Amino acid sequence: MTTRPDSPRLTLGRFLDDVAERHAERCALRFEGRSWTYAALRRDARELARGLVGAGVGKDTRVALYMANRPEWVLSAFAVGIAGGVVVPVNTYAAPEERDYILRHSDATLLLLQPSLLKHRFLAELHADHPELAEGENGRLRCAALPQLRAWACLGDSSWQALLAAGEDVPESLLDTLVAETEPCDDAMIIYTSGTTAHPKGVLHTHRAPTLQSWRFADLLRFDENDRVWTCYPFFWTAGICMSLGATLAAGGTLLLQESFEPAAALELMEKERATAAHAWAHQHKAMGEDASLATRDLSSLRKLDPGNPLAARAGVTEDQYSPNAAYGLSETFTVASMLPADAPVAIRRGTSGRALPGTQIRIVDPETGEALAVGEEGEIAVKGVTLMRGYYKVPPERTFDENGFFRTQDGGHLDAEGYLHWSGRISNLIKTGGANVSPVEIETALARFAGLRLGLPVGVPHPTLGEAIVLCAVASEGASPTEGEVRGFLREKLAAYKVPRRVLFFLPDDLSYTANQKVQVGPLREQALARLAADGVEIDGHRY
């Protein structure tokens, strides 16, 4: 395994070469009954890379991927890496405004997409919103709303075949040279994640981050070539990229893909394909655990599960021998900054978030002054190291890192005398729901165009499977009486589904607590929301307050 942070092999192109050489004829991917060996994965990725080079993709060219978890996403990501470009995954849950923001902010020159997913018609919606993209000459597009975009290619469309054809005169030797000229410190990906701003932040990562973390996860999760990993972690976030996709390939295992999550279909696939590990967020595991078909499924092949997982009993996992939960990280560190092996002693795994990974420094600082705190003192977690982002795209580094190069996470915790990290929760108002970060500011900005509210403040309330559920605390405008359904319906048109509050609670202005400068105090508001939910016996995703 290539786990040395200074290894020159830590690029997407070299990673693919390495795993294909080690596991050439083993099955790398399974999707809708079709298989790709490691050799075929490399062959098809290089064919697409030739097309990208023929279409003008070169060092630092931004290429957006608007696809779900399917083989073409994998091929495209590696192809962009081989060509020297920068992968920009687009959130498939994104509303049109969010989609356009990602494409525009990232300076995407080329968009690779699938035509549709469930009820979403990606290509038709894009063309309806921007007729210039449908009417213009592909390769010479001129769209003021997406000023850098010059071309798009859609799966199953003649545009995809034209992209592949563009590489007919690109020799394989040129691809080899491009891979050789790409360094681990070159830019590789911009991951968009919600933060404390109104728009998603573009987290800029070099090649080293996703590849190093993929090799690390293969080891930390104790994967090997016999593992068959089912995942619904989306590839537009870091966990899907390295914890599921990269780790499985690094180990020589087989990744079982589905484009969308549906409990019964997921259970059916895991049974049919004899999955050994399952990656899903807690609320998705809960949904599978409650699905009527579970009782008839043979899931005895599943071994790499936390015993607290709702599937564990059906799979026969009863002892706490394995769990990936002793970890701490974020998109800015391309997942984990600290972690213990999944089979580490139970007593350590249950009580800590692990130790800092090699090449990573973790310190606890005073949230106000930034001064380092002593062992055992509670403060803000700050990180620095080999998988830390290069920065937020288009944001000056001095606004991102402190004077010592540390990134302040806005998470609270402490380090003990043995160097183990103990995470205690967020010290910001960021809401983490269903594995995703949601910025309250983003919801508030969308609500600014809703005339019926004087005030709308989102808060996160504890939820056993979602982590936090989003609840909107609202004050109606004078003379207006909007309903919960109207507010949620409005936001569904503006935001990705997981960002829409699960409930809307209406308050009178005098019900709220204010600071000296008349800002609503979020802490007391969250407590008021919890009290209201409990008093009314409200249920959110099966949990009654």
Explain this structure to me?
- This protein has 545 residues and is an alpha/beta fold.
- The protein folds into three domains: 12-26 and 37-208, 3-Layer(aba) Sandwich (Rossmann fold), CATH 3.40.50; 327-426, Roll (Luciferase, domain 3); 433-544, GMP Synthetase, Chain A, domain 3.
- The protein contains 17 helices and 26 strands.
- The chain has a five-stranded mixed beta sheet with strand order 2-1-10-9-11, with helices on both faces.
- The longest helix has 17 residues, at 38-54.
What's the CATH H-level superfamily name of the largest domain? ANL, N-terminal domain
Can you identify the CATH class of the largest domain? Alpha Beta
Structural class: alpha/beta
| Tally of DSSP β-strands | 26
Radius of gyration: 23 Å
Number of helices: 17
Mean pLDDT: 93
Overall CATH architecture of the largest domain: 3-Layer(aba) Sandwich
**Major sheet strand order:** 2-1-10-9-11
User: Biggest β-sheet: count, sense, barrel?
Assistant: 5 strands, mixed
The name CATH uses for the topology of the largest domain is: Rossmann fold
First-last Cα distance: 47 Å
Ordered list of secondary-structure elements with their pairings:
Blueprint lengths: L11 H11 L4 E5 L2 E4 H17 L7 E5 L4 H13 L2 E4 L6 H10 L4 E4 L8 H8 L1 H5 L15 E4 L3 H8 L6 H9 L6 E7 L7 E6 L1 H13 L7 E4 L6 H14 L2 E4 L5 H11 L3 E3 L2 H8 L22 H4 L11 E4 L4 E5 L6 H6 L3 E2 L3 E6 L13 E7 L5 E2 L14 E9 L5 E6 L4 E3 L2 E3 L1 H8 L5 E11 L3 E10 L7 H9 L10 E4 L15 H14 L3 E2 L2 E2 L1
Identify the notable features of this structure and list them briefly:
Luciferase, domain 3; 545 residues; alpha/beta; 3 domains; GMP Synthetase, Chain A, domain 3; 17 helices; 5-stranded mixed sheet
